[in-house]
Amino acid sequence: MRIHTVTVEQSLASLKTAATGLSASEAGRRLAEYGPNHFEVVQRPHLLLRLGKEFTHFFAIILWIGAGLSFLAEHFDPGQGMARLGLAIVGVILINGVFSFWQEYKAERAVAALRQLLPQKVKVSRAAQIVEIVASELVPGDVILLEEGDFVPADCRLIEVARLRVNLSTVTGEALAKARDSAPSAEESPLHARNIVLAGTSVVSGQGRAVVYATGRHTEFGRIAQLTQTAGETSSPLQREIARLSRLVASLATGMGVLLFLVGQAMGLPPWENMLFAIGIIVANVPEGLLPTVTLSLAMATQRMARRQALVRHLPAVEALGSTTVICSDKTGTLTENRMSAQGLWLGGAFIARADLATRTQLVDEHRQLFANAALCHNVREIDENGKRELRGDPMEIALVDIGRQAAGDLDGYHVVDEIPFDTDRKRMSVLCQTPQGRMLYCKGALETVLDCCRFIQFDAGLAPLDPASRTRLLAAQDEMAGRGLRVLAFAHRAVDEGLSGDEQEMILAGLIGLEDPPRAEVPGAIARCAAAGIRIIMVTGDHPRTALAIARQIGLVRSEEPLLISGEQLRQMSPTQLQLALDAAEILFARVAAEQKMRIVEALKQKGEIVAVTGDGVNDAPALKSAHIGIAMGIAGTDVAKAAADVILLDDNFASIVAAIEEGRAVYDNIRKFLTYILSSNIPEIVPYLAFVLFRIPLPLTILQILAVDLGTDMLPALALGAEKPDPAVMQRAPRARGERLLSWGLIARAYLFLGVLEAAAAMAVFFFVLGSAGWHYGQALAPTDPLYLQATSACLMTIVVMQIGNVFLCRHPLRSTLDRKSGGNRLLRLGIASELALIAFILYTPAGNWLFGSAPISGTTWLLAIGCALLMWSLEELRKAILRRAGKD
């Protein structure tokens, strides 16, 4: 038995209760049986376990092995500096892990926000006595009292109603408050039944008594909470690419280390010297600075996005937003202002814009009764809030009171003496007012019901009989106003001798008022920018289809004559395949959708390979926000639940801010490729010295600690500077990157490893041999690790890599544009990065502490000049390569 389809008596009987409520003993028994009225939290791994995961992924395991081998080598062959190397590698692991760990709190915050939204206290009838209990103690069969301003604590079937209106937006997404009654409903779903109030919604006006039929996780609210908790974590494209890159590079490094260890063994190298070589190969191949550089780059991007009103809660969301191909946006509060206002009127047989009322004083005077009706026929309360009078109640009625008072002016002498409340069947409301002209009956409601109670219609020329032609004109006017996205109400009145004799009959139809939730002014421009950037926008709303379509046309989201409009009921009957095929439509809108349906749309888009962003502000949006690649919540109108489930929060609730955030996100991906090219370029000059050491039996040109000095020292700030580059002016004029495009593409590998890296390696080895040759060294001559000549030669090799990287950082600012092109703009962080490189290499080469820690020694000015000359040569060759590609038409 569906409780909303039966009578009050049958619903009470089905729950084995009465209108006076349960006894205390029976309530206690049911509490033990059904459990408390809160939803259960899905158990998640302990924080320490999640912390441990950050130090046990594949990338970290390779480094742990390297650190372990270093400590082992120090144990068996002390004094070679292997302990310092092991500590340095452990430090790298810790830095990477700590930077990633803080991202693991999303689910806990979402659940906490859901639980806090439920009310703490509720009035309940227990054995005919009204008592106040904690909401968690409610049980099925309890009879509760609801008043204006209350949150509904459980799913309930109404049994008594007095002008009750409920705001359902947090659960169903519908913008307007809905009237409720106690009559049986023929609706298929309880979500739309007029005799049902749901947990987590709020009472806008009126009073009621209701019997609880579902508590805790069995409520619609609890089911949404369960969906929010169990929705799988969606990794961002950047997270997947970094994971892929880490596995690829770590596997390559390990493979090379093991292979060349075997080669060294075959060549007869001493075991510990061979192990040192293998560890050096691994360390040289693994870009230890990559993860912290990515993290810090994303953190800087979040600061820039915050200045553009987009607060990022999870770092990977920055880049994920930039790769978005589809935005599923709700309507109310995101594309619109979430503020009802009266905009259009039909008076005297013609349409009048609200803005024209100020200049149409005669028209306003002629239709004063309509405006008095709007100002008086309502259930709005006026309260004093910190010395300021404010209206509280249904937003639609507040909007009508606003236009009524503005147009009618002074209403002294008018006061309501009686009321016929809004009723489902009547679809209208009436009030009896005492006025200076005598008693008046004012009525407002749906045109089709008000028409049947009217005998006359008011035109500018005066009253006229309400004949079939007039009815046709009125209905046509209503359709036209509804087509503009307005909610249309009719207003009628008549003089009354006393009481409410005659009820709502023989009235004069005064006119129509159309109300709208206006679109945000910035939205049409933002939608146009999304279209230029190749991003689809799909409206997903709980509102009426006609309203959704009208708003979509106003903001430029729909331009065709017949877009695909799918209702929640139609969606419910679609198979997964049918939904995915429907999503191929060029213009598609979803209306009257439920929470799980919004998440279903997101999942279908993900199955199609789309990168999906979802906007939302209500509890009902939380599962979809979490399921999407990127969840975007409204910071002002959004519920705590939506904010906790989202990755990005719009501080100004402005859809246009999403476009600014996408621009920043796209820049982030471009910038990561820039500093990835920069970081990987230095791997080749770090690997080549070890290969030459084994294959040609020369002194080792570069120590492992010197490699770490580059990867975690000199390269860090310049890489971050590349990560802070401003968005390219054309970034929003290109389509989202291809689904299969890799962060580490073959073009990037070729440029970093086979061109820039080779040039750097050649320069580093040339300068190394220059220093040795200048001092009379000859091939085959052994040098002790503490020999001053050896220390100078390795220092020269290190310095050359740093100098080459200084030139390289300018070359990496754009893959094709010349460094002399001013379109790239300035970058103060870049200058700071270069200064830090020079300061660090000076510390390493010219201070006793640097010499001791890194095994270095001061070098001559001639060596510096040779390294600078090599850097200029690399700059010239790379500029030539870019020029050839630009001429080939690839820019």
UniProtKB/TrEMBL annotation:
Its EC number is 3.6.3.-. GO terms for molecular function: ATP binding; ATP hydrolysis activity; P-type ion transporter activity. Residues 2-75 form the Cation-transporting P-type ATPase N-terminal domain. Keywords: ATP-binding, Cell membrane, Hydrolase, Membrane, Nucleotide-binding, Translocase, Transmembrane, Transmembrane helix. One of its GO terms (cellular component) is plasma membrane. The keyword Hydrolase applies. InterPro entries: ATPase_P-typ_cation-transptr_C, ATPase_P-typ_cation-transptr_N, ATPase_P-typ_cyto_dom_N, ATPase_P-typ_P_site, ATPase_P-typ_TM_dom_sf, ATPase_P-typ_transduc_dom_A_sf, ATPase_P-type_domA, Cation_transp_ATPase_P-type. Pfam families: Cation_ATPase (PF13246), Cation_ATPase_C (PF00689), Cation_ATPase_N (PF00690), E1-E2_ATPase (PF00122), Hydrolase_3 (PF08282). It is found in: Cell membrane. PROSITE patterns: ATPASE_E1_E2. The chain crosses the membrane at residues 55-73, 85-102, 248-269, 275-299, 743-769, 789-809, 829-846, 852-877. It comes from the Bacteria. The keyword Oxidoreductase does not apply. Gene3D superfamilies: Calcium-transporting ATPase, cytoplasmic domain N, Calcium-transporting ATPase, cytoplasmic transduction domain A, Calcium-transporting ATPase, transmembrane domain, HAD superfamily/HAD-like. It is an enzyme of class 3 (hydrolase). It is a multi-pass membrane protein. Belongs to the cation transport ATPase (P-type) (TC 3.A.3) family. Type IIA subfamily. PANTHER family: CATION TRANSPORTING ATPASE (PTHR43294:SF21), SODIUM/POTASSIUM-TRANSPORTING ATPASE SUBUNIT ALPHA (PTHR43294). This is Cation-transporting ATPase F. It comes from Accumulibacter regalis. The gene is ctpF_1.
